[in-house]
Design goal:
By secondary structure, this protein is of the alpha/beta class. It has two domains: 4-135, Rossmann fold, CATH 3.40.50.10140; 147-178, no CATH class. It is built from six helices and seven strands. It has a five-stranded parallel beta sheet.
Length: 180
């Protein structure tokens, strides 16, 4: 188990959203942000509840992910603990709406008052917003009039070994182009 002080953000999620949360965690790692995700940190053969309590008491920030399945039962308990602990330590608890989140997601009352990050929308760029929430460092916004941002939308299709489609996801990516 890694020391709690070595993590920048706890990835609080419903297990049904784990795939998308893992992808976001991997992107954070590429940006030199150390995420804590249960699957990556729980050591087999040890009680996981103690590890979870230690993280909640020490970690610098929490990202609370909401997808199409809403909040999971353990996730609700984690949120309550984070809100209590983080009020004492003035640490951010960031609601994160995944690309699959409903139009009007149901958030706990105390969490709904927090500014959220929305992966359903291309602007403001959600990964940049999430990193800002975690680190407290405001992103640099390009003001170069010679460049413009374009959005490329695409579909990710997951297939099983026989080639049958088991999952479809709509995604988008932004890129810069030179103005003519």
């Amino acid at each position: 188990m890694t020391s709690p002080s070595q993590f920048d953000v706890f990835l609080c999620h419903n297990s049904k959203d784990k795939l998308e949360v893992k992808q976001i965690g991997e992107q954070l790692t590429k940006q030199s942000i150390k995420p804590w995700l249960d699957e990556w940190e729980f050591r087999p053969g040890f009680p996981w509840q103690r590890t979870l309590e230690t993280q909640i008491e020490n970690i610098k920030a929490a990202a609370v992910f909401i997808g199409s399945s809403g909040l999971g039962p353990w996730q609700e308990l984690e949120i309550e603990a984070f809100l209590r602990e983080f009020v004492k330590r003035e640490c951010p608890v960031i609601p994160v709406l995944l690309s699959t989140a409903p139009d009007k997601p149901k958030l706990p009352v105390f969490l709904s008052g927090h500014m959220w990050v929305d992966f359903r929308q291309p602007q403001p760029e959600p990964m940049t917003q999430l990193i800002w929430g975690i680190t407290g460092q405001k992103p640099q916004i390009s003001t170069n009039p010679e460049k413009s941002t374009k959005t490329f939308r695409f579909e990710v299709v997951t297939v099983n070994q026989t080639g049958a489609i088991i999952k479809r996801e709509n995604r988008s990516a932004e890129y810069f182009t030179e103005k003519p």
